[in-house]
Write a structure and sequence with these properties.
By secondary structure, the protein is mainly β. It is built from no helices and four strands. The chain has a four-stranded antiparallel beta sheet with strand order 1-2-3-4, with no helix packed on it. The protein is elongated, with a radius of gyration of 18 Å. The mean pLDDT is about 75.
Length: about 100
């Protein structure tokens, strides 16, 4: 797909034109992050979270929560998932 602004030829599966960073889709359609509820005991190795992340293992933990290593089945890459303790989220659940 050719950018109307910079005329750079881009792959069809991108969200932004590579040379000028002009969005291909309206920003409302691009949602890179979501807030989801997790099981009370956290995530376990081998489980699938949010229908697309396969948990590989725990990377670390601290006062605010835990960080997990996961495989994103839709993007085919490894990602990190941060899960916060309820005490770290004073405004959750929304009131």
């Amino acid at each position: 797909m050719k950018c109307p602004k910079c005329n750079f030829d881009n792959p069809d599966d991108t969200f932004y034109f590579g040379k000028c960073s002009t969005p291909l889709k309206p920003l409302e359609e691009i949602s890179p992050t979501k807030t989801l509820e997790t099981p009370a005991k956290g995530l376990t190795t081998g489980t699938t979270f949010a229908s697309k992340y396969e948990v590989i293992g725990e990377l670390g933990k601290g006062g605010m929560g835990k960080v997990y290593r996961a495989q994103d089945s839709k993007l085919c890459c490894e990602v990190a998932i941060q899960v916060l303790h309820e005490a770290s989220c004073p405004y959750w659940p929304p009131r």
